[in-house]
From TrEMBL:
Protein name per its UniProtKB record: HID1 domain containing
Region (Disordered) residue spans: 556-585, 617-646
Comp. bias (Polar residues): 566-576, 620-641
Higher taxonomy: Eukaryota, Metazoa, Chordata, Craniata, Vertebrata
Gene Ontology, cellular component aspect: Golgi medial cisterna; Golgi trans cisterna; membrane
Organism: Cyprinus carpio (Common carp)
InterPro entries from the UniProt entry: Hid-1/Ecm30
Sections of the chain in a coiled coil: none
Length: 764
């Protein structure tokens, strides 16, 4: 009954606010207290009882009342942070104000005229003893109050006070480093679980995320000098809790075990409040760990002039260096990311997490800001691309970005030679081999799946293969056949001629073959055998026609023939047992748009491996014949290469196309492979005739003990294309990250039906 009265009183207060045409004084506590002091409403109640239309009506018709409501709510949070919320009533007021601001802020952000409101000072709202000109902007007061409240004893953390129950810890002198939420990086004690503390932390983190979401209401831009002022201030030295909060968030995420004690169906019997906290924590982490390309898009206040663009969350992440800390973080992420793939005898008996997209973004940021995470054992790190094999396009993109980043490190390529034994159920052929074999088999599956929106990733996938190829000691027969099948498909005449950049894929594959032959010949008899079997593909490439008539015929033939890159042309059709795990559906019926992905030439910079193993940068060339050139002249920096099958104008056939074909054809790196075929094919044929061999195992044995020492051209320098941070990928990550956060926060629907501009929301 009391709860019904509470909702009724809150609704009456909302109606009064929307119908009052005159400004209500800030000193009229009897009026303002109706919103937080006398109610016990849940966050869902606040969203239901304060409709979007009414918030917008107050914003347009009674702007001073909306401003006062925001100011009074922040004031209550500041008071709660100073007092430490010793009473239940004070705790309830803080929670009510938190929910109210979470509801209102998106409607402040969607209106350009209101966006500066929280960065203005309110008369009389200065810090104690300050004059008005030294007053903090409302945004700063709000962020500092939330940070204090996240380490408030008996509200969000366990009290350390012994003795009288009414004794209150002094919030100003409290050392929050002693109150870190979970054991892990930089903290050894694991505080007892308290679900009320978890719920309160979750509410405050939701408000924090809403504050940071101003970025959603700005159009996408490739200007990476624009920073989020809310994040910039919160992660600065002004926030005395920055270190313990960063550590708390990271440890809570990485220590979380959704399976718990492993009792079947336990997630259906009990509410898991820790999961809600972990979701909010990982979302706060990925938003706060932002690149510092420049200054915030608003002049800093006098109180923050001395800060500079030093993001402490990034700073602390980059300084993690202890082996046990890496181990804790990577094992935690691997446990969570493999959770959706876990299979049990009892259907749906173990809990499946839904926030793996955010976890992948977090892993990307870990690798980007701290290179030691790039040196991780692939038995951990390779899990980060297993999920997307049959999943969403955005998830696939980020997994490929992660692997592109990792593939630039020699250590990663070397560690791919470790045996792959942990068979996660996937829709790929059964094989026995290494992590390198797994990588190639999965990439082949992605390329041959025929998904149109995955075509911009082909260059990235093959760049990863090229980067790791000099270190691959022994490819399985399955993986070797997959690589040859890709070459066969990409070197058909109609595919090579149908778009100006399609030949890049052939160049990448030939470079990978050359690296393996020159640097890892001894252990790769399977690949050598596959090359010999498919030698006609290389001969056809060497004799590729470049006259107009043949090109025209090839392009016309393309219209009649089915796509070579399709599942039907894959050689193996037997899938692993238990493959095709259920992929969780997109929440609701909405999806967020993504900006175009930059071409591979914008994503990477070339480095040459010197004799001592160090990388030396290779100057970028402007030549359009190199595989790194993104497309024909005139394409934009962010234009993707999705037009693999765009038809070339057939009448008349352009002389430019003929010249282009002649130019790249003369640069095909076929010398090493042709020399190999010239030496080995006659030997293999002679053995087969002399011994009457039909068993390929005997041929493999011969190739295993063969040598090409002194017979091949001089080994070429190893060329690595390292991922290069740029404005295009920064924008892609920003839109992807906020799109995921928008779609994941549906209860309550924080941003639903607001005028988001960073991406488009499309109904499915």
């Amino acid at each position: 009954m009391g709860n019904t009265d509470s909702k009724l009183n809150f609704r009456k207060a909302v109606i009064q606010l929307t119908t009052k045409t005159q400004p209500v004084e800030a000193t009229d506590d009897a009026f303002w207290d109706q919103f937080w002091a006398d109610t016990a409403t849940t966050v869902q109640d606040v969203f239901a009882l304060l409709p979007a239309a009414e918030i917008r009506a107050v914003r347009e018709e009674s702007p001073s009342n909306l401003a006062t409501l925001c100011y009074k709510a922040v004031e209550k949070l500041v008071q709660g942070a100073e007092s430490g919320c010793p009473t239940e009533k004070e705790k309830q007021i803080v929670l009510n104000c938190t929910r109210m601001l979470s509801r209102i802020l998106p409607y402040i952000f969607e209106d350009q005229d209101w966006r500066g409101f929280f960065w203005s000072t309110v008369p009389g709202a200065g810090r104690a003893g300050d004059e008005d000109e030294g007053a903090r902007p409302l945004a700063e007061s709000l962020l500092l109050a939330v940070a204090d409240l996240l380490f408030c004893p008996d509200f969000t953390v366990q009290s350390h006070k012994k003795g009288r129950p009414d004794s209150v810890e002094d919030m100003q002198s409290l050392d929050s480093c002693e109150y870190i939420w979970e054991a892990g990086v930089g903290f050894a004690q694991s505080p007892p679980l308290n679900y009320i503390h978890d719920i309160n932390r979750t509410e405050l983190l939701r408000l924090l995320l809403t504050c940071f979401s101003e970025a959603m209401y700005l159009p996408p831009t490739s200007d990476n000098s624009i920073l989020n002022p809310w994040v910039t201030f919160f992660c600065s030295t002004e926030n005395r809790h920055a270190l313990p909060l960063f550590t708390s968030l990271l440890n809570v995420v990485c220590a979380y075990d959704p399976v718990g004690y492993g009792i079947p169906y336990n997630h259906l019997l009990f509410s898991d409040y820790r999961e809600q906290l972990v979701e909010q924590a990982v979302q706060i982490l990925i938003v706060t760990l932002e690149h510092e390309g420049g200054q915030p898009y608003r002049p800093p206040s006098p109180s923050s002039m001395s800060i500079g663009p030093n993001n402490l969350f990034v700073n602390y992440l980059s300084r993690i260096h202890r082996e046990e800390d890496y181990d804790f973080v990577l094992k935690g992420l691997a446990r969570l990311l493999t959770n959706p793939l876990t299979q049990t005898y009892l259907p749906n008996s173990t809990k499946k997490i839904q926030f793996h997209q955010e976890l992948l973004v977090l892993f990307w940021k870990l690798c980007d800001f701290n290179k030691f995470f790039c040196l991780a054992d692939p038995r951990n790190s390779l899990f980060f691309f297993l999920l997307p094999v049959s999943s969403r396009v955005g998830l696939m993109h980020i997994s490929v970005f992660i692997l592109l980043l990792l593939s630039g490190e020699r250590n990663f390529g070397v560690r791919l030679n470790k045996p792959y034994s942990l068979h996660v159920p996937m829709d790929i052929p059964v094989f026995t081999g290494t992590h390198a074999d797994l990588l190639i088999v999965v990439f082949h599956k992605i390329i041959t799946s025929g998904h149109q929106r995955l075509q911009p990733l082909y260059d990235c996938l093959l760049t990863i293969v090229v980067n790791v190829s000099p270190y691959l000691k022994s490819l399985s027969m399955v993986a070797a056949n997959k690589l040859l099948h890709l070459l066969e498909a990409f070197s058909t005449t109609w595919f090579l001629f149908s778009a100006p950049q399609n030949h890049h894929l052939v160049f990448f594959l030939l470079e990978a073959f050359n690296n393996i032959i020159q640097y890892q010949f001894d252990g790769n008899c399977n690949l050598v055998y596959a090359i010999i079997r498919k030698r006609n593909v290389f001969h056809q490439l060497a004799n590729l026609p470049s006259d107009p008539t043949t090109i025209q015929k090839a392009l016309q033939r393309k219209r009649k023939s089915p796509d070579v890159i399709s599942r039907t042309s894959s050689q193996e059709t037997v899938s692993m047992e238990g493959s095709r795990p259920a992929v969780p559906a997109e929440p609701g019926t909405l999806k967020a748009s993504l900006v175009a992905m930059p071409g591979i030439d914008k994503l990477t910079e070339k480095s040459q491996v010197s004799e001592d193993g160090t990388l030396v940068a290779v100057p970028q060339t402007e030549s359009p014949q190199t595989p790194e050139h993104s497309a024909a002249a005139g394409t934009s920096d962010t234009e993707s290469i999705s037009g693999r099958d765009n038809e070339v104008n057939l009448s008349p056939l352009s002389s430019g196309l003929i010249l282009q074909v002649l130019s790249w054809k003369s640069k095909l790196p076929l010398q090493t492979i042709m020399r190999l075929l010239q030496v080995l094919v006659p030997q293999v044929e002679k053995i087969c005739i002399d011994k009457g061999l039909t068993d390929e195992s005997e041929i493999l044995k011969f190739l295993q003990h063969g040598t090409l020492v002194g017979l091949l051209p001089v080994p070429h320098p190893i060329l690595i294309r390292k991922y290069q941070a740029n404005a295009g990928t920064a924008m892609w990550f920003c839109t992807y990250m906020w799109g995921v956060i928008y779609l994941r926060n549906v209860d309550p629907p924080i941003w639903y039906d607001t005028d988001v501009r960073l991406f488009e929301i499309q109904r499915m």
